[in-house]
Structure formats: C-alpha cells, structure tokens
Amino acid sequence: MSSISRFRAIRVTAENDEHHAEMATLSLDDLMPGDVVVKVKHSSLNYKDALAITGRAPVIRRSPLVPGIDLVGTIVETDAASFAVGDDVILTGWGVGESHDGGFAEYARVKSEWLVPLPDGMTVATAMSIGTAGFTAMLCVLALEENGVRPDSGDVLVTGATGGVGSIAVALLSGAGYSVTACTGRIEEAPLLRESGAADVIDRSEFSESPRPLARSRWAAAIDVAGSVTLANVLSQMNYGGVVAACGLAHGMDLPTSVAPFILRGVRLVGIDSVLCPAALRNKAWQRLATEVSPQTLRHTTSHIPLDDVIPMATEMLDGRTKGRVVVDVESR
C-alpha cells in the first residue's frame, strides 16, 4: 500500500460544453494507471497547457484531467525494472496533460517507458526551464543538422523568438555558431534577443502579408512555430536547398502556399513532433541540451511561479502577456 496520502493538484473538468479548472486535493486513486509514481518538483506552463486550462481549444481528451504536458521529479514508487526509487526523471509528451494526468500536481503516476533519466550535470530546475519547448527546439536543431545545415550555410530565421521554443532555439543556434535572425511580434524585446545571441531582430509583420509563391531569397534555414501565413512567407523566402523545421501552429493550422518553393528552389519542409518522439532521439536531444544550454542564458528567458498561480497565468499566456519559459515550482507555496 502506498504511503502517499492526499496532495495538491490542478484539475480540469470539461463536460456538456462546460469547462472548469480548479485547485483540488487528490489521492493516487484519483490518477490514471502507471507503473511509476513521481514526486513532481517542477513542471512548466506551455501554450497547450494554457489552452487545456482555459478551454479555448479542445486539447484535453478525458475529463476530469490533471493538465501539465511536462514534469521533472524523483521516483518514489516503481514496478519497472528500468528505474529505481530515488531516480530523477524527465517526462515530456506522450499525451500527458492531454489524455493522461500530467505535471500540475505534487505527484504523477505514469508509464516508465515515457521517462528520460535526468542527464548528468543538469538540475531539475534547469530541466523545466528547458521543458517541452526547449526539447522541441533541440529537435528542430537536430533536424537542420541532419539535413546538412551548417553555421557557414547562411542566415537562420527563428519565428516566435520571444516564446518558449523560439527563445531557446535562438540560444542553441547562436551558441553553435549560426547567424540567427529572430522574428518576433515584440520588437521591444530586441535587446534581450540580441543578448541571447541573435545577430538581427525583425518584426513578425514582415511575414503577415499574403504570401507570394516565391520572394527574395533570404534564409538558409528556419525554425517556425507559427504555421499559416507566417510559414508560407518563410517558405517563399528560402534560399535554394533551404530547410525549414516546422514545429508549431500559433498562427493557424492552414498553409496557404504553393509547390513553387519545393520544385523551383528545392526547399525542404521538415515536420517536428515532440509528443511521440522515439526514446533514442529523446535521449540524444536531452544529452545535447545538458551540454549546450547555459543555465545563465535560461535565466534571461525564464520566470518561476507556484502551482497556485498557474490558472490565472494561463489566461495571460493566451493573451500574449508572457514571454519565454514559465516554470511551475510545484513544491512552492
């Protein structure tokens, strides 16, 4: 029998066109099945979490549900041979916080195959300063590398550069020697982006007009979090043989483009999925993150909130009033 009694959690109920998020007191019996119990130390507030909490988009697939698509913590109970009590682990993706209870709770019960060991030299706080956003950013960087993009290939564009994925992508690429142009709707954040390594900062309005099939070549590669018209404009501006890693849909799921960039300039569009990413690639990405992301850099782009502040902060995020990464210190009161 478990020694864990009651604990605090955010729980979302979505039934009969009604959506409600509240702070609740749960027991392990209230959580979905799994072979590992993790004492959660940190989670993070991502765009998808904000949608789950507010109900502005139907991202949760069961009710009631504990949201929070990523977490880091220490294993306190396990039936899995692959992990031991006391191991520090990271969880991102796999439907956690969407179809399985997630990280906005003091304890999480999950499947062991979803877990990644905390890399040597990485603290639990740093892991969630990186979180799903940073993990996705590293998957994008790996995709560019695997498609032959090198620091001497030319300028690399990052859209949504003040957001979670974009801010870490800028830091990763600049740290590896790439010339990075940061695109943002918050041009007032240009000094911070330059401090993170951006060689240039441009306003996202440059990518908001109806896209032409082909525009002036500007970019050797790009990481795009926006989709829709933004991505279409990015594709039209790629150099010959350019590579775009697409990982988000902040501006929409549509893609109003033509085949012209692909058949006339040989542009490659690479889709990035962080939810069902295979274990070997997950481990590779986290090992790279452990050595290539500076905790000092993360301090400039990371804020911390207690679990009690997550629900109101979700609305602020969707209204565009947050920046960078928002780490949830689950143990703080």
CATH topology of the largest domain: Quinone Oxidoreductase, Chain A, domain 1
- Our count of helices gives 9
How would you spell out the order of helices and strands? Answer: EEEHEEEEHEHEHEEHEHEHHEHE
pLDDT < 50 stretches: none
Category from helices, strands and their pairing: alpha/beta
Helix content percent band: 25-40%
The separation of the N and C termini measures 28 Å
Q: Into how many domains do the coordinates divide?
A: 2
CATH class categorisation of the largest domain: Alpha Beta
CATH superfamily of the largest domain: Medium-chain alcohol dehydrogenases, catalytic domain
Radius of gyration: 20 Å
CATH architectural arrangement of the largest domain: Alpha-Beta Complex
For the largest beta-sheet, the strand count, sense and barrel status come to: 7 strands, mixed
**Residue fraction in strands:** 25-35%
Mean pLDDT: 94
- How would the global form be characterised? globular
The tally of beta strands, per DSSP, is 15
Plain-language structure description:
It is a single chain. The protein is an alpha/beta fold and 333 residues long. It folds into two domains: 7-118 and 299-329, Quinone Oxidoreductase, Chain A, domain 1 (Alpha-Beta Complex), CATH 3.90.180; 132-271, NAD(P)-binding Rossmann-like Domain (Rossmann fold, 3-Layer(aba) Sandwich). It has helices at 47-54, 124-146, 164-175, 190-195, 228-236, 260-264, 279-292, 295-301, 310-318; strands at residues 7-15, 18-26, 36-45, 70-78, 88-92, 107-110, 116-117, 156-158, 180-184, 200-203, 219-224, 238-246, 268-271, 302-306, 325-329. The strands form three sheets. Strands 3, 4, 5, 6, 7, 14 and 15 form a seven-stranded mixed β-sheet that branches. The chain has a six-stranded parallel β-sheet with strand order 10-9-8-11-12-13, sandwiched between helices. The longest helix is centred in the middle third of the chain and has 23 residues, at 124-146. It is globular, with a radius of gyration of 20 Å. The model has no long low-confidence stretch (mean pLDDT 94).
